[in-house]
Predict the 3D structure of the following.
Amino acid sequence: MRLINLSRNLALGLGLSLGVGLLMSGSALAADSATARHHPKEVEFEFEGPFGTYDRGALQRGYQVYKEVCAACHSLQYIAFRNLADKGGPEFSEAQARALAAAVRVPAEPNEQGETVDEKGVPLTRPAVLSDKLPAPYPNENAARANNGGSLPPDLSLMAKAREDGVRYVYSLLTGYDEKAPASFHVPAGKNYNPYFEGWAIGMPKPLNENGVTYSDGTKATVAQQAHDVVTFLAWTAEPKMEDRKRMGFGVLIFLVTLAGLLFAAYRKVWKDAH
Amino acid sequence: MSGPSTYNPKSGIEKWIDSRLPLPRLMHDTMSTFPTPRNLNIWYTFGGILTFCLAVQIVTGIVLAMHYVASANLAFGSVEAIMRDVNYGWLIRYVHANGASMFFLAVYIHMFRGLYYGSYKAPRELIWIIGVLIYLLMTATAFFGYVLPWGQMSFWGATVITNMFSAVPVVGQAIATWLWGDFAVGDATLNRFFSLHYLLPFIIAGVVGLHIWALHVPGNNNPLGIDVKSPQDTLPFHPYYTVKDAFYLVCFVILFAGFVFYEPDFFGNPDNYQPANPLVTPPEIVPEWYLLPFYAMLRSVPDKLLGVIVMAGAILTLVFIPWLDTSRVRSCRFRPLMKQFFWAFTVVCVILGYCGAQSVEATAFGIPLVWVARIATLYYFAYFWLIMPIVGLIETPKKLPASIAQSVLGDSAAKPAE
Amino acid sequence: MAGTTGDAGTRRDFLYVASGAMGAVGVAAVAWPLIDQMNPSAAALALGTSEIDIASIQPGQQIVFKHRGLPLFVRRRTPAEIESARAVDVNSLPDPLARNAALPDNAPATDASRAARPEWLVLIGVCTHLGCTPAVSTPQQPQGEYGGWLCHCHGSAYDTAGRIRKGPAPTNLAVPAYTFMSDTRIKVG
């Protein structure tokens, strides 16, 4: 996906000389330490490749997984409820998105008396509207750490782009809890073994379980299915304009190649007498 | 600019303007009738491509500045708002981010072309030196720009680069603090970097004007490296080179568009999609690819001050090339020995880039990369300070053609070609 | 230059014109994103609706809210103010149209078509001349001769239905689309 991982994309061609130099980088990076994270699992997603698009069903189910599982600890701060109805996204209807928003309470603005908490000191809330961002599970970083044994559950909006080979990384992490730790590896108290995580010891306990959610469209909620769905959803939260981008790119490239063809003909014509 | 003007105002309005502000005359003489060697190849189209890149960066940059917020708390979020909510914001930002890489790709080709064909040699020394200045301004601008998204790589890249100034004896720390406007990279730093990032491209545009002005005095060098001797050696810039430049420009834009639309994060670093965190350094700090060779040189020297000197020296050396090259002929096409050293130099630069991308302890085939980088750095400097002057003196160049026209058209060049 | 006559010249001209035209189309296509980016973003558009609590407004009082970055006047009119607004002959007004986003463009500027519930007048508080915010008239501190608003920038005077009566402003103050969610709460936009 990126320059440091060039082998996958060499065909795109930055020029051979640069390519050769960086081709070896993957192997050199891997063997850094004994507990370096394993290479992500080789899984494919519908949205990959030049014509790939997000699977709407997977996006909608992925939102459900996020809401029912991940949202307990992880925020999604760059996503608003209105985005759930965006074209190129989960494409809930506007009414559905409104209903999804209304089911969630967000911090309310100060009331007419200027109060932000009720008489018991509980912060005031109101049902969310489309323009609201998805609420964070914790009011601040300290609260997040205090509730998670000192670990900070990161915001997930950009997770699929913020790690090397991000979508496969997240997928592998979510499905990587069942492997046995090598005898030589001691899992610290309060941590969980996951070889796809740097250092192998992760604060997050196994999040996905067989039938941990109940899909309304009848899809069987295996761990792999839930992981696939939520990873698709997170790929979208990280790159919400991907479908626009690929569609426009196709038109642009056709236009440019045609223009190049015309210019090449003009170039040959003009230069015919000059050689 | 060189030679008498051939501009002939046709209408009364053109005459009126020409006698008051001869701008149409300047355009006509530099872009239309300008006599250009008839044998320029594909590598000579990169000047035009670079002008295009600069224009793209300035236009998209002005637009991004309308939405970007230079504040440590808001910068990262404002970039995400551009990517998500601003109309076509994702497109404009991806063009700008990939545009920087395409700009450097083009400038490196342009520089290596100049090196290979001896374009820096008399009477074109100033074109070259102004070019080195442009390159320096470009790296500064790119560095400031990379800081602005305020991701992890932005923040730590800024920290590492500004800390280089602390290598200066006695006043180093004071300089670093002055650059930061604080005791570390922070809000004040981000704001001043944004200001400079907005300013420098316009200075680059001005210096590019000087670069082109200086070019139009002696005219283009060419792959043969011999002077233009008669009108038969040249073609008018328009239509011959306008159409050729346009064709190759569009080819370049196809590559550019391929990255923007299908691999927009190809040149990026995943760490920069994590907001800056002054308390946690990412496991590996890597600069953008176009600075990797210099980064490798910096790391190959075990002394802080010396490392910075070596890195700065690598760029400063370029200024002296016109006088380090002692050869009588310009083009490596006629320099069998120098040609080999040139290609070795190119490979060395790529190796340096590779070393710069790896972790400090990395090895290749059992050899510590830091030693590979040391030898490569040595070759880099030797190429300019030893090989260039010595080979120029001992090498016997191949026989040069009598003229450009004869080389291109064969002996039939004797008859009028046009 | 050679080749400017005959078929070769024609073909070359065609190629010039074709690639030139395509280049022009390309430049125009690139211009659109650069122009459109200045239009309100998706986030700004999403903030198009506001819910406003009007319970605390007393008769004869106006409270100014912010809606889409603009002042929104909510005025609870006294019976006398409603009466004076109704007494005006619509055809004698400088602007005889309602300017109400909820009504057709050609609706007349009667008081009923300016205020859905006579007691409540909801207006975008932007003078239709050059965008200043008009000052509201109160019995203690009248603004203009018509009991409504006076814009201090250039002297446009509005009546108690927010209709332009005097001064350079060309049209009545705009009435946004709004609905009563309850007797004390309105939703604007």
